Amino acid sequence: MAKTVAKVVYKPDTQSTDSYIVIVNPEEYKKWKDGGHTIPLVDVVDSFEIFHSTQGAQGHLNRTSKQELDAIFGSTKEDDCVTHVLQKGTLQITSAGDKYTTSNDAQQGHNQVSRGAAGHGGR
């Protein structure tokens, strides 16, 4: 069974490709969104980290800088910015890969630290 990742995606402008993303617990988020604002945000979000992607919700995720947070959300406080994303964003549940893979299968499991001429040392 594939693992799933639940995230709330907020786009400040419908024409923009910029997306701001918060990873959430889907059950707690639905309760919170339906008026359960007494639920602590710690139970709703995975972390108070807002990710930014210029390629939509499926693109490469980068951490959002304080300057970006201030420009988009009018605050650098993570609580305020996360709450804004949760209130105005949409929930998306995507499947994640089942296991870790390498980009060079020939070297999988054979990564070694280099050694000096005498057989010891290296990095």
What's the short story on this structure?
By secondary structure, this protein is α+β, with helices and mostly antiparallel strands. It contains four helices and five strands.
Explain the overall architecture.
This protein is α+β, with helices and mostly antiparallel strands and 123 residues long. The protein has a single domain, classed as 2-Layer Sandwich (Hypothetical 12.0 Kda Protein In Nam8-gar1 Intergenic Region, Chain: A). The mean pLDDT is 80. It has a 5-stranded antiparallel sheet, covered by helices on one side. The protein is built from 4 helices and 5 strands; from the N terminus they run ββααββααβ. This is Ribosome maturation protein SDO1/SBDS N-terminal domain-containing protein. Residues 99-123 are annotated as: Disordered. InterPro entries: Ribosome_mat_SBDS_N_sf, SDO1/SBDS_N. It holds the Pfam family SBDS_N. It comes from Tilletia horrida.
Highlighted features:
123 residues, alpha+beta, Hypothetical 12.0 Kda Protein In Nam8-gar1 Intergenic Region, Chain: A, five-stranded antiparallel sheet, 4 helices, 20% strand, globular
